[in-house]
Specification:
By secondary structure, the protein is α+β, with helices and mostly antiparallel strands. It has 9 helices and 7 strands, in the order H-H-E-E-E-H-H-E-H-E-H-H-H-H-E-E. It is rod-shaped, with a radius of gyration of 31 Å.
């Protein structure tokens, strides 16, 4: 019982038995009501925590961009809106072996791309290709340039075509460049080549006087500088990237 209430009762001139009964009644009411308020407050706090955790977790695990790293093997990363890797796709056994030895999940995409570039690079180095909605793609390209990566952009609709063809973003971009020079090249043939071999074919076609780049729709960023060739970046971001989250 609150001490102030006790003092107030002491000041009242009444029968002692009556005052004691009244005090006992007040104490019982306080004892019954207090436990009800505490669980209710705890329940509201727990509900708020669940809502915040669920919303934050969903935002974190949802892919907002795709980044492929291509050399002798190809790895594609699902990247969330915070620039963190939340999924990995390997296009061959060699790529899987590299990913097993080079953990990239939950790292920033620039850290992951740099580590994979070092691990995958053959004699010709690795290429990094980014696909996202236009605003997010520009931010990713800027981050890549600041990290010393040379990145190429692929619009979301073309990126979806790459997935339909079973090719990484980087290989599909190279396939489009090569097919513009040599229409006889098929997607299957491009898929069997490394990025170095695709680039050699492009160089060979250019050496024969073909007009490389007329149908290429890429943006290239090196050390923070962006140049564009072909059609502008546009379209809308496709739903999901088909990655398995680990």
């Amino acid at each position: 019982m609150d001490e102030r209430i006790r003092r107030a009762f002491d000041a009242v001139r009444a029968d002692e038995d009556l005052k004691q009964k009244t005090l006992d009644t007040l104490e019982r009411r306080q004892t019954r009501s207090a436990p009800r308020r505490r669980p209710l407050a705890v329940a509201f706090a727990a509900l708020a925590l669940v809502v915040l955790t669920t919303a934050g977790g969903l935002a974190y695990t949802t892919p907002a961009a795709a980044v492929s790293v291509d050399a002798d093997a190809s790895v594609e990363l699902a990247v969330n809106a915070f620039g963190r890797v939340v999924g990995v796709r390997c296009y061959d056994d060699d790529a899987q072996a590299v990913v097993d030895a080079t953990p990239v999940l939950h790292h920033t995409w620039t850290q992951a791309a740099a580590a994979l570039s070092d691990a995958l690079s053959g004699t010709d180095g690795a290429t990094v290709t980014v696909s996202a909605d236009s605003g997010h793609c520009e931010r990713l390209l800027s981050d890549g340039g600041a990290a010393g990566l040379t990145c190429y952009a692929l619009d979301p609709e073309t990126a979806q075509a790459a997935r339909d063809a079973g090719l990484s973003l980087g290989k599909y971009r190279a396939y489009l460049a090569l097919s513009a020079l040599d229409p006889t090249v098929t997607q299957d043939q491009a898929g069997e080549m490394t990025m170095g071999e695709l680039q050699q074919c492009i160089d060979a076609c250019q050496g024969h006087g073909y007009g490389y780049g007329q149908q290429d729709s890429e943006q290239t960023q090196t050390a923070g500088e962006t140049t564009s060739a072909g059609q502008g970046y546009g379209g809308h971001h496709g739903q999901g990237h088909g990655y398995g989250h680990e």
